Amino acid sequence: MNSSTNERVFYGTCAGLIGFVLFYTLPIYARLPRTYYDPVARRWFFAANATPIPMGYVGQIVWGIAGALIAAGVAMMLTARKKSAPSERAFALGAAWTLTAIVIVLGYFTWNNWP
Amino acid sequence: MLFLESLARPLLLCHAIAAAVLVGATTHHLLWCRHYLFGRYGQAKAERRFATICAVAFVSTFVVGNLLYPTYKVRVRAEYFDNPPAISDEVKLRVAQHQVVGVAPTPPPAVVMSLSRIGRLFDIKEHWVALGCAASLALWILSRKLHPKDQPRVLPLYVGLSAVQCGSAWFGAIVGLVTASYRSVGGPV
Questions:
Q1: pTM to 2 decimals?
Q2: Most buried among A19, A26, A84, B34, by the most CB within 10 A?
Q3: How far is CA B93 from CA B82, B98, B115, in A?
């Protein structure tokens, strides 16, 4: 695998993960509409809020997957256009941003749901 | 009847087996990755195989858990954890059954606490495993396309994702067991 493909895979993976964690959090943080499943009525609906029983988890995951695909696609396109090879520091920053985004979002959900 | 409620017990069993494989595989993976920090790549081939096992186990556990989720949400969360009268009735029932069996009865607690805190702990787990599953898939892609053996600059991300994967798997398994212990060995208090 040549270095250009390496960079695309690396930044695509980093951006995909950052996109997933941010878009997974977005509907909760910004109260955006998402898909809910009501297990009692056995029906799906699209709303920003619901009563306690309907499950918005699947809709939240769909947001996350969409964010991952968009972010990874954009990052791979941008990396393909870049002429110069990224530095050692750029790789370290990619890893740091990705892991930090995961830790912040884990902390956000832990804080918000703390018993 | 709720979605897949009739299959809830076999699904829970599959979920538990997949989770056991997941915890073992992710722990193994992280332990192997620690050698990379010292530049030793002797077990890279086996480690790559474990990255695949981890990703398959994570996705399987996650999917089966989601199939069980409607049953949990109604039968456990709404009808029990978030329902103080049900907890209070169970406390009374257990005290009565202690007397029937002949076990020295323990006095019922003065205040029956809500179990919503367990439901909230389970909510935290849900988010941790969703992110852990994404990390596991990313790790699998890196293990196939850009392994630290060939590209050492990827190493911090690789080991970091392995740690996220392992931590979220352990946290999910422990919270899952704690949740399942209510209404069984632990009783309601």
A1: 0.93
A2: A19
A3: 18, 9, 17
